[in-house]
Amino acid sequence: MLTTKRLILRRRKESDAADLYTYAKDPAIGHIFVSAKNISEGKTENEL
Question: Cα 37–41–31 angle (5° rounding)?
C-alpha cells in the first residue's frame, strides 16, 4: 500500500469488482481498463 496526504493506493479486492466494472463500462474512461464482457469475466481476467 502507498499512502500520501491525498491518496491511498492498495491492491484491488474482490469487493471492488462492481465499482471497477461500473468505471470500465463508461466510454469516457473505460478504454484504460482491460475489456470484460460482464462482471464475472472481469473478476477472473483482471486479477493482478
Answer: 50
Distance CA 4, CA 37 (A): 34
CA 5-7-11 angle, to 5 degrees, is 135
Cross-strand partners of 2: 9
pLDDT tens profile 1-48:
999 999 999 998 989 888 888 888 888 887 776 655 566 665 544 454
Q: Which residues is 8 bridged to in the sheet?
A: 3
Extract the runs of DSSP E, i.e. beta strands, from the chain: 2-3, 8-9
> Which residues have CB under 8 Å from 14's CB, separation 6+?
43
